[in-house]
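Entry type: protein chain
Record version: 2
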Amino acid sequence: MQRSFIVLLCLGFAYATLQNYTVDDSSPDIQYSGKTFPCNITTCPPEATNGASNNSTTLTTGSITFSFTGTAIYASLDLIGTCSITVDGDQIANLSQTSTEALAGGLPDISKSDLANGPHTLVIDPTTVLTIIGLDHLIYTAILPGKSHVGAIVGGVIGGLVLTFGVLFVALLARRRKLIMRRNQRKNAVLRGITSARPDNKAAVDDGTNLPT
């Protein structure tokens, strides 16, 4: 019972939810180290922004840095040249793409999951001269603390304990009364047996006055 109580408490504290957050390329939370060019429906041809988040992509020849707190990160980008992508200094991808390949279909989304819940830093860094990186958007996953159910759990456990002890007490009390009734019944039976064994009339006491002559 004590072990179950501890497990329920742990479940109450551990309750949480996962939430995805989308960060657009124009967000001030994203740091661009080099020159940037906003590619949108007014500055680029429609085919360049078709399918992009908010119909915009930020082009840069420098590195891109984004800090977040969570357990996973996803990057949607385009590339002409080569670049290295790291999370907390550990490389998760090394990409290379020509302009012809970029026009043919582009890159798949880059992701890194199973991160420890905490602060992390994503860096997209060009590794060759004249590399152009086009960032569409980022998505990171964060853990949101849910409402704690510890109070309800503790209340339920305590209520269950009280009910259990109450039932046990009633059972013991009923057993005690039953034993007392049995003991009284045996006592009454013995007394009735003793009473029935007595003669109806007491024998006369010979005081010597009725001696034969």
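Comment: The mean pLDDT is 79.
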